[in-house]
Amino acid sequence: MKIRAVIVEDSRLARNELKELIKKYHDIELLGEAENVDAGFDLIQSTLPDLLFLDINMPEKDGFELLEMLDEVPITIFTTAFDEYAIKSFEYNALDYLLKPVSEKRFGMAMEKVRGKLESVQEGMGNSKKLTRNSQIFIKDGDSCWLVKIGDISHFEIVGNYTRVFFEDKKPLLYKSLNQVEEKLPEESFFRANRQQIVNTNFIKNVVPWFNGKLKLTMQNGDEVEVSRRQSYIFKDRMSL
């Protein structure tokens, strides 16, 4: 299995260091490198890599801002010279972090994690316009940030021009419209219940008849979602109710 990788790092010395380490691994294909966030975004959009080596502290825009720009986030390994960033990266659910200068042993440990992760996320990665259940999205709400697997999200809800995302005990805002979100979601798992909400059918705990031919769903976290009358007919057919 080839691991298709890109580097986004403002230091040429650090990029060269990573490239020398990568050369020792025949299963890693380096697709390209970029020295800033905007160039990195273009590179990722054009190559759709499996793996991103991402510097956190870059001028103008930092690595976290790059993740926020992406619809789908590749497996991410942060590279940093600062310990506080390394600790913070785990709040983002990054696969790993590498402190610069990167040792060969530490790089090898990170690549073992990458191989293990890829075995579980390989389906649908690369060329699909739709996200899969294993795809990751980046959410930044205030000072808090997350890398969230699509399959772990229970439902989405309109809040003004933005979308609230529900996963675990969290419900941050995603700065995209619900229609933008819906275009990317895997249809086999997500259902548009009404104009305001999309639900992950895997997180539905209970379904009961409601007024005027509607249905009411209870999600695993206890939230209740009313399915519009039109969508209730579609939902019954889809779920064989």
From TrEMBL:
SMART domains linked to this entry: LytTR, REC
Entry keyword set: Phosphoprotein
UniProt keyword NADP present: no
The HTH LytTR-type domain, residue ranges: 137-241
Residues bearing PTM 4-aspartylphosphate: D55
One GO molecular-function entry: phosphorelay response regulator activity
Residues spanning the signal sequence: none
Keyword Repeat annotated: no
Domain of life of the organism encoding this protein: Bacteria
Annotated Response regulatory domain residues: 4-115
Protein name (record): Response regulator transcription factor
Source organism (scientific name): Flagellimonas alvinocaridis
